[in-house]
Amino acid sequence: MASSSRSQFTSRFGFIMAAAGSAVGLGNVWGFPTQAASNGGAVFLIVYLLMVFLLAFPMLVAELTIGRYGQANSIRSFRAAWPKGKVPMMALGIVGMIVASLILSFYGIVAGWLMGSFAESGLTLIGMKQQGLWLTTYSVPRNLVLMIAFMLLTMYVVRNGVAQGIEKWSTRLMPVLFVLFIVLTLYIFTQDGALEGLKMYLVPDFSQLTPGLAVSAMGQAFFSLSLGVCVMTTYGSYLPKNTNIPKTAAQVALIDTGVAFIAGLMILPAMFVAKHNGVEIFSDSGALLNSDTLVFTVLPAMFDSMGMIGAFVGVIFFLLMIIAAMTSSISMLEVPVSCVTEELKLSRTKAVLVIGGIIIAISATIVCNFQLLFGAVIQLTTVYSQPIIALLITLTVGWIWNRHQILAELKQGYPELENSWFWKIWPWYVRIICPILMLMVFFT
User: Fold this and answer.
1) What CATH number is given to the structural domain containing 308?
2) 243 torsion bin: left (phi>0), alpha (psi -120 to 50), beta (else)
3) I want to staple 2 with a disulfide (CB 3.0 to 4.6 A). Which of 45, 72, 166, 326 is the partner?
4) What sections of the protein cross the membrane (predicted)?
5) Is 7 within the bounds of a domain?
6) pLDDT tens for residues 289-303?
């Protein structure tokens, strides 16, 4: 176990904002609406909500509990849960750390594009549209410069530690994110064509329901809640012992799902506003065009069609996207940094420079071999690695970790837990139902 001098979140609000910030990222604002638009709108929303409730929430509790029990980085926390299985538990922590780093390597590229779009919208606003074109025109130098700029920002926050870096910036950025979201969504609702998008998002067509849709919804729930990459294990290790983990996990899951829902309310109507303004969004076969770059093609085209007010809305939208990306990227960088500082006894500053440098090098390799690597890395990490690691963590909590230790750990923040409905259901649910549901989804 780690010593009690280990860094901690200073308030429950700080932890909830940081954990929700990790969960609320491009997965919600870019991934979820794109997935919903590509998979029949309302039907995808229903299956996604079911996946969050039936799978992601019980597993979020499992990851947070392991982290707080271990009071250390993910490698040590897994080892603490099963001291006899030192090698497989170390391997699980190391693989989780590598996957978190790989996700950040492509995330940094996408977030860099957002910074470019934000700066370009700002230049358009002051009448310098031509000067801003380089920032939104695809090129290797532009991708490298913007990715490095975003990664340096992320490294700056993580270098300042848990309370002064992650918690401080999450409690500042998340409330701003919520306000910008609501303002922008209400504005989109006033535009012609928005109602058509709202109908697609909220009125289900069950003929669209397929096994592939269920797999997409599960992957989206894991990616969105940062499950299976040791982020929540690491954040859990910074939780004070008197925190009620099930209640806190429910709040994080609700905030995250709420933001994904609002992002859909904003982006699907925005797509149809763009369509109303002459932007092509669907092919002849009805498939979504540019699904991967929806945020970078359809929405800027919509902003352009609105004149000056569009440039202003664009600035707000891309600022919102950068905040969402930043609160997630700091959590992903914290996973390997916490491992390196504790296992190799490096200072936090050195660890951030070393790990940040390695991730920048991986990102640069992806940028220079974009067609070959970008989609492949996303597929490897979010579609395969995340659910498999999440399944292994669930099996560890359900089958390997001593039930009395789990109960004792959870009771520290929830003394009456033993007599609650949660404790009657959760242990066997994580043991049997979660793995079965995951395997069913995997193999359909």
Assistant:
1) 1.10.4160
2) beta
3) 72
4) 12-30, 42-66, 87-115, 135-158, 170-189, 209-231, 252-274, 294-323, 351-378, 384-401, 421-443
5) no
6) 655 566 777 778 778
